[in-house]
Design brief:
The structure holds 2 protein chains of 2 kinds.
Chain A: H1 3-11, H2 19-31, H3 33-54, H4 61-74, H5 82-104, H6 111-126, H7 137-146, H8 151-154, E1 163-172, E2 175-183, E3 188-195, E4 203-209, E5 212-218, E6 222-228, H9 232-245
Antiparallel strand pairs in A: 1-2, 2-3, 3-6, 4-5, 5-6
Chain B: E1 3-4, E2 11-12, H1 18-27, H2 30-41, H3 46-53, H4 57-75
Antiparallel strand pairs in B: 1-2
The chains are: A alpha+beta, B mainly alpha.
Chain lengths: ~250, ~90
């Protein structure tokens, strides 16, 4: 094995080497400091990439961008005068204050969970960002079973024309949820489920985050969050169904 | 900022800034970014990535290699490369 071959392995995937080539690679690295250093740098960069990208926190810039684009495309061009700008600033301040009051004076409202759910749906379902999904039904059932979620209830969330397509475990507000995606071929909605031992069966609310319609319900045993781009009615209907079947 | 090791002037990515890394990844083409994220962040092998993106494994390896090179060039444009084109065959 020579340096060129080692460089190629370093850039590709040295994990899948057979025993003979792995041994040749080790032997070369023992004698070649340049390749050893390059491999070390590659590992550092990979490690850093994982650390940075897996530690990403809530980023609402994409949602904001879409909302702005939507507003721009639906509005005629406006030349802002000082008066309009002043009015907009006051309106924004009032809106921020209202949002802050709503967040802090509404105990039990799963705002952060729903914001995270909207964010996940936007990136992973609408944006198709690569994630490790489970798509075979037995594997999805096993995942639900492991998270102590009623397997028999999963099919009941398939709205007319929709089927359960894939699932993965994710974190919303630092808590583990089962993320299920239902599809009708053209549209998809997300259902996030988590067993809640302390659920008091009292929590239901709906909200919009950009174009995402969200409904959340807390039953005696489970928290369910539905994110849909189709309609607020669909999200609310599914949340009400969660109240009955979970 | 990517720092240099004092003794060797080789880059170390240990302290590479998170913003720089995100920007560098965002600057990659969609194909390169997809392969890089699947292989490095999600931990799939090249064979598995090939099945996910329905591309030949040679194409996946080539994209991964180019994505890594582009990333290194962005984070450390003057990174020294191994110049020993032909080493001792083992």
């Amino acid at each position: 094995m020579n340096c060129q071959e080692v460089q190629r392995l370093v850039m590709y995937d040295s994990a899948g080497l057979d025993a003979v080539r792995a041994s040749a690679l080790r032997a070369h690295l023992e004698t070649c400091s340049a390749c050893r250093e390059q491999l070390q740098q590659q590992r550092e960069l990979d490690h850093r990439l994982r650390a940075v990208l897996l530690a990403e926190t809530l980023d609402t810039s994409e949602i904001e961008h879409r909302v702005r684009e939507n507003i721009r495309s639906n509005s005629p061009p406006i030349t802002f005068s000082r008066t309009v700008l002043r009015f907009a600033a006051v309106a924004a301040a009032v809106l921020l204050a209202a949002v802050a009051a709503w967040r802090y004076w509404s105990p039990g409202q799963p705002v952060q969970i729903c914001a995270d759910a909207a964010h996940d749906h936007l990136r992973e379902v609408v944006g198709k960002e690569p994630r490790r999904w489970v798509s075979e039904r037995p594997a999805i059932d096993a995942l639900a079973d492991r998270m102590m979620i009623s397997v028999s209830a999963l099919s009941r969330f398939a709205a007319p024309g929709y089927h359960l397509e894939r699932a993965r475990v994710c974190r919303l507000d630092r808590q583990l949820f089962l993320h299920l995606v239902y599809s009708n071929g053209a549209r998809e909605f997300s259902l996030f489920l988590r067993p809640e031992r302390s659920g008091n069966g009292a929590g239901f609310y709906a909200a919009n985050f950009g174009q995402e319609h969200i409904a959340s319900v807390l039953t005696n045993r489970t928290r369910a969050v539905i994110v849909s781009e189709e309609s607020a009615q669909l999200a609310a209907k599914l949340a009400r169904m969660a109240e009955r079947v979970l | 900022m990517v720092r240099l090791k004092a003794e060797s002037q080789a880059p170390t990515y240990e302290f590479a800034d998170a913003v720089e890394i995100r920007e560098a990844v965002d600057n990659l083409t969609l194909e390169h970014r997809t392969v890089l994220l699947l292989a490095v962040v999600e931990g799939f092998t090249c064979q598995e990535v090939a099945e996910i993106v329905t591309a030949p494994i040679g194409t996946v390896m080539s994209r991964l290699s180019r994505a890594r090179s582009a990333l290194r060039n962005q984070l450390f444009p003057a990174a020294p490369q191994c110049t020993q084109a032909k080493g001792e065959a083992l």
